[in-house]
Amino acid sequence: MSQSIKETETEIVEEFSLFDSWDDKYEYIIDLGKKLPLLASEYKKDDNKVRGCQSTVWLVANEKDGKIFFEAESDAVIVKGLISLLIRVLSGHTSDDIINAKLDFIQQIGMTTHLAQTRSNGLLSMVKQMKNYALAYKIKNSTKV
Questions:
Q1: Which parts of 45-110 fold into alpha helices (H)?
Q2: Is the pLDDT of residue 38 over 90?
């Protein structure tokens, strides 16, 4: 059985607590971004861009067996790391789980206080887009007969 969103968040908070400085945390985020699988070029189109991000972020969602899976890429390494954290937490869960996720880990690891305002806004835009995808799938599935 897969982990709950909360369990994954706790895991990330524990990982970040191992680093003493924000430089180390940024390094870790950048490393995570480098490990993010590349997005197929057919998804790199305007429709899949996350609005409100300073850098370019493409985000796509697919549903399989009632669970939503996210893929993303960005032209900025730090943003790739941030989206990889969000994917790790939210991907593979149901619409309801994603919509209701509090995502407290973002604040717990200090992300809200250490990101520049534009990056913070971008992070919120990515979260919003992921929740919007979940909502769209939920609506789509509730109208299936």
A1: 77-90, 95-100, 105-108
A2: yes
